Amino acid sequence: MFHKFSLKCKEKFKKENLHHVAIIMDGNRRWAKKKGIMCFLGHKEGFKALKKAVKFAIMNNIEILTLYAFSSENRNRPVLEVNALMELFLFALNNEINNLQRYNIQLKIIGDITYFNNNLQKKIIQVEKITLKNSGLILNIAANYGGRWDIIQSVKKIIEKVQKGILKVEQIKESTLSKHLSTSHLSPVDLVIRTGGEKRISNFLLWQIAYSEFYFTDVLWPDFNQYIFQNAIDFFISRERRFGGSKK
C-alpha cells in the first residue's frame, strides 16, 4: 500500500514542480510536558520523527529537505537542555552515517557551526565530506541558524568582494545575495511546513521563502508522520503559484 502511495506521490511531485521542502520542527518540549516526562525525551522522540520525514522524502522523490533543528535563539534555553541537544546532535551524526551512505543522502549543516564544541565541529565537517558526492536526497540541517544571520553573512561576503575589486556595486542583484547565502547550493524553497500550532517563521530562511507555500499543523513534531506530510503535499498541490504575477 505504501509503495503504491509513494508512486502516486512521485507523479504529483513531478507534475507540480515540488523540489524543495523545508520544515520547522516545533513542539518537542510541549510534547514531553504533556507526557509528564523530561524535555530531552521529547527531543529524542523528535529525532525519530525527523527520520520518518527523511524516509518519506526519499520514497517520494523530494530532491531537497531542509529541517530547522536548532535556531540561534535556542541558545538562550536552559544550559542543561542545550547541552543535551548538542549530545543528541553528535549521537545522530555518529550513528546515522551508515544510513546516509546507504540511502545516498548528501548531508549539509547550515548555520554558524563555530558555536559548537570542537568535537561536534569536526564530526560535522567529517560527515559532510563523506556524503559530499552522494547524489540522492540533499538533507540540510539548520543548526545554530538564523535567517537574519544568513543575510548578514552574505552581505559581508559581498562587501569584501567589492572592497577587493572583484565585484562592482552596480553588479549586485538579488541573485548575488542568493549566491552567498548558506543555501547557495539549493533551489528556492517550494513548501514550508510548521508543526506545533504556531503560525510564524521564527527567523527561518527569510530570504529563501519569499514565494514559498506555507502549511501549518497543530500536530507536535514527535507525532509527525507520513500522513501529515502527505496532507501538506496535498495542500501544496491545491495551490496556484503565481510568484507575484497574474493567472494566464
TrEMBL record:
Any single GO BP term: regulation of cell shape
Cofactor details (free text): Binds 2 magnesium ions per subunit.
Protein name from the UniProt record: Ditrans,polycis-undecaprenyl-diphosphate synthase ((2E,6E)-farnesyl-diphosphate specific)
Gene3D superfamilies: Decaprenyl diphosphate synthase-like (3.40.1180.10)
Residues that bind substrate: 27-31, 43, 71-73, 77, 194, 200-202
Positions of Mg(2+) binding: 26, 213
Catalytic activity entry: 8 isopentenyl diphosphate + (2E,6E)-farnesyl diphosphate = di-trans,octa-cis-undecaprenyl diphosphate + 8 diphosphate
Class of this enzyme: transferase
